[in-house]
Design brief:
By secondary structure, the protein is of the alpha/beta class. It folds into 3 domains: 131 residues, Polyamine Oxidase, Chain A, domain 2; 156 residues, FAD/NAD(P)-binding domain, CATH 3.50.50.60; 92 residues, Guanine Nucleotide Dissociation Inhibitor, domain 1. 29% of the residues lie in helices and 23% in strands. Strand 3, helix 2 and strand 4 form a beta-alpha-beta unit. It holds the Pfam family Amino_oxidase.
């Protein structure tokens, strides 16, 4: 599954932070660390930057062509195929799933991208129904709930505060003044829920108050509300980086409130009322288990290793020229679903509509590192190893223990998946620096907290996502162009989470389903 050139093996101790204390005379001799890239090859997607090649191309035909086998493309293709349409899905990568892909490291399943799905609420019955169909949830007496084995097992989260591991991610308010600020933010979230926020976003109104929130950064709004308590501000910034790939200084106030108001609100640590106990849905391979099931009905209709180069709407249909390992192909279809990011669609479509030309979104690069350990490192003081483990004030988002869902109590090999949302300025370095360089950076963020980690580490696999997530910066959600693209008619439909101005599974799933339904109703 890996793409790109393999990198040399590098001595483990060369990856330690400069000045890290030795682990003791009885520690084992250093071994070479196996470091490789795993996942999509960025150079393949960059073919779209060049002038489309001319020459002989093999003619291919289908009724509906879906370009992109991420969550949106798979969702659209599944719905179209269920309705009896002839569908072909073309995917750039060697496997479907996009940013929800999974992989194997040391034979153990792990995510290469998104690793969990919040439990969908009543505003998303389509996804609830799908989870019931897959056996991951059930309805009893009209009440929807997930199966126990699909929810994150306890302990779910912990945070290293520099001294000890603390349960949960939200720092407890240190004094009554801080507690008052936490409660005031909880009230603001409750007011936002009454105002109207939803997943997917198009199922809630977007009125003047929403637009006012969308016009300013989350940090600026928090300042005007007098919400300055350091622990609260760290946590809110972390949540934004986790969901949007950028912190509270960059995302809009609409996005900052949407994170909580569209889900289960905000619970104040230490208050007597219990938080809403709806653990997220996950598996060892993260959201890979979801895309596996979305892709299962497609079988031969899913064709990988295809790079779309140029899209033309013609009198008799739509023509897509694409690259394949065997040579150029010209696909002819009655209609096309473009399940690709908007910046890709802008390059691909030779004469795009004005709304597509006008759409503007910033994107966050991500690095995902999967670390194969021969066993868990020595425990530190405080809360035990959890599913999600966050080091406070680290540049990374922490790591997920992919084997946390296992019911086997015996210690053994495990994979930690570390997530790192990088500033846009680091995109060139993400693509140009070696896997060894990035491995050193990854371990530099972890070894102060886990000094024996390098001695237990056997393999390190790195996945690059150069344009991973759309960032809901001020003004992004309210773009008229996005509204127009959701209502686009004709032979081409746009289906991507970008239409919501941010990137999560629920938005991608519904964008694909909506595009399929539009095509079915218009024919």
């Amino acid at each position: 599954m890996g793409q790109g050139a393999l990198t040399p093996r590098i001595p483990r101790r060369s990856l330690l932070l400069a000045g890290l204390a030795p682990l003791g005379a009885c520690s084992r001799p250093p071994r070479a660390l196996d470091v490789q890239w795993l996942g999509p090859d960025p150079e393949r997607g960059h073919r779209l930057r060049t002038t489309p090649p001319t020459g002989q191309a093999r003619a291919r035909r289908t009724e509906v062509l879906v370009l992109g086998a991420g969550v949106a493309g798979l969702s659209a293709a599944r719905a179209l195929r269920a309705a009896g349409r002839q569908v072909t899905v073309l995917e750039l990568d060697s496997a479907p799933g996009g940013h929800s892909r999974a992989g194997l490291v040391g034979g153990l399943p792990c995510p290469l991208g998104a690793h969990y799905l919040p439990q969908p609420g009543p505003q998303l019955p389509e996804l609830q129904d799908l989870l019931v169909e897959w056996g991951a949830a059930e309805r009893r007496n009209g009440v929807w709930r997930i199966q126990e084995d699909r929810g994150v097992h306890s302990p779910a989260e912990r945070r290293f505060d520099g001294t000890a591991w603390q349960p949960g991610l939200l720092p407890a308010p240190p004094d009554p003044q801080a507690l008052a600020q936490h409660r005031r933010f909880a009230q603001q979230v409750a007011e936002a829920q009454r105002l109207g926020f939803a997943l997917p976003t198009h199922r809630a109104a977007f009125g003047p108050t929403h637009r006012a929130l969308d016009a300013q950064t989350f940090d600026a709004w928090l300042d005007t509300q007098g919400l300055t308590e350091p622990g609260l501000r760290w946590y809110l910034d972390y949540c934004c980086r986790d969901d949007y790939g950028a912190g509270s200084a960059l995302v809009s106030a609409w996005a900052g409130l949407h994170y909580f108001a569209s889900r289960h609100g905000f619970h104040v640590a230490g208050d007597d009322d219990e938080p809403d106990a709806r653990p997220p849905i996950t598996a060892p391979q993260g959201n890979g288990w979801l895309v596996e099931r979305l892709a299962a009905p497609l079988q031969e209709a899913l064709i990988t290793d295809r790079v779309g180069l140029q899209l033309d709407v013609e009198r008799s249909g739509v023509r897509l020229r694409c690259w394949s390992p065997e040579g150029l192909e010209d696909w002819h279809a009655a209609s096309v679903v473009l399940a690709v990011p908007l910046f890709v669609a802008q390059r691909l479509w030779r004469s795009p509509p004005a709304a597509l030309q006008a759409a503007r979104l910033q994107r966050a690069p991500w690095l995902v590192a999967n670390l194969l350990l021969e066993g868990p490192p020595l425990p530190r003081i405080g809360a035990p190893l959890a599913w999600d483990n966050v080091i406070q004030h680290s540049p990374t988002l922490g790591y997920v223990n992919a084997q946390h869902q296992s019911l086997d109590p015996r210690p053994g090999p495990q994979v930690w998946t570390l997530y790192w949302a990088l500033p846009a300025a680091e995109r060139p370095a993400l693509l140009s620096r070696s896997a060894s360089d990035w491995a050193a950076r990854v371990l530099a963020t972890l070894t102060p907290t886990h000094p024996d980690l390098p001695e237990r580490l056997q393999q390190l696999r790195l996945t690059r996502w150069g344009h991973a997530m759309a960032i809901p910066t001020p003004g992004a959600r309210g773009q008229a162009a996005l509204v127009a693209l959701r209502q686009l008619q004709g032979r081409v439909r746009i289906a991507h989470a970008d239409l919501a101005a941010y990137s999560v599974f629920e938005e991608a799933f519904m964008a694909g389903l909506a595009a399929a339904q539009d095509l079915l109703h218009s024919s």
